[in-house]
Design brief:
Elements: H1 3-29
């Protein structure tokens, strides 16, 4: 793999998992009212 491909893969992984972690933290601090 080229350097550019590795960098783009890292950016994609950080975006996906960062969003997942951020949403979990947000929901744990602000639970939805049913």
């Amino acid at each position: 793999m080229t350097t550019a491909a590795i960098v783009m893969m890292i950016v994609a992984v950080v975006t996906v998992w960062g969003g997942t972690v951020a949403s979990i933290i947000h929901l744990s601090r602000n639970p939805e009212e049913s």
